[in-house]
Specification:
single chain; mainly beta; Thrombin, subunit H; 2 domains; eight-stranded antiparallel beta sheet; globular; pancreatic elastase; calcium; metal-binding; disulfide bond; hydrolase
């Protein structure tokens, strides 16, 4: 996350760290959202290579154990059939991970609320991006979970020629466009948007500009969760 600040520990209790195994160690690569006790939603581009994955719930400092973490292996990866790894702007950047064990819910680990199918945010809706990604373009990831104020940008604005143009589809949601942004390592994590006083996960962090993470009029682009509710329910029996 570029800009913003370090979050209060466990204040986004549905945020998870997705980690891959290399040698005998695991390394953070993406974020994700706990949507059921045994299911995590993330980005397809995070999991479209063959790796051994694990999910850490209830985490804050990646490199230290604070006693609230729950570590789960991933038993199955379900990538949307529309996803094409050669064309991230094509959309469908969404995947579900089946956890090997169900999470225990407590103050540090909670399920995210998802929006109703088809719901579109108005321009400038209050949202926060959260993640352990890089804190500047080409920089280092954050050891502590960060959050940044990232108001939504409506599709008409985001798809205009001086913004993202036709790269952005209606199945995506844009947020930011100023100093604050997502960056590498935030992918797959949530865009947490406030609607009627409650936070709902409206986006799955998908991509930023190739010119940099926080480029003016190139807001962070997310998979729009409300476009995929029926897909999520189809993969994951209610």
């Amino acid at each position: 996350v570029v800009g913003g600040e370090v979050a209060q520990p466990n204040s986004w209790p549905w945020q998870i760290s997705l980690q891959y195994k290399s040698g005998s160690s695991y390394y953070h690569t993406c974020g994700g959202t706990l949507i059921r006790r045994g299911w995590v939603m993330t980005a397809a581009h995070c999991v479209d290579s063959q790796m051994t994955w694990r999910v850490v719930l209830g985490d804050h400092h990646l490199n230290s154990n604070e006693g609230k973490e729950q570590i789960m292996t991933v038993s199955n990866v379900y990538i949307h059939s529309g996803w094409n790894s050669n064309n991230i702007a094509g959309g469908y950047d969404i995947a579900l991970l089946r956890l090997s064990t169900e999470a225990s819910l407590n103050s540090a680990v909670q399920l995210a609320a998802l929006p109703p199918s088809g719901q579109i945010l108005p321009n400038n809706n209050p949202c926060y991006i959260t993640g352990w990604g890089r804190t500047q373009t080409g920089g280092s990831p954050s050891n502590s979970l960060k959050q940044a104020w990232l108001p939504s940008v409506d599709h008409q604005t985001c798809s205009s020629s001086s913004w993202w143009g036709s790269t952005v589809k209606t199945s995506m949601v844009c947020a930011g466009g100023g100093f604050n942004s997502g960056c590498h390592g935030d992918s797959g994590g949530p865009l947490n948007c406030q609607v009627n006083g409650q936070y709902y996960v409206h986006g799955v962090t998908s991509f930023v500009s190739s010119s940099g993470c926080n480029v003016n009029r190139k807001p962070t682009v997310f998979t729009r969760v409300s476009a995929y509710i029926s897909w999520l329910n189809g993969v994951r029996p209610v």
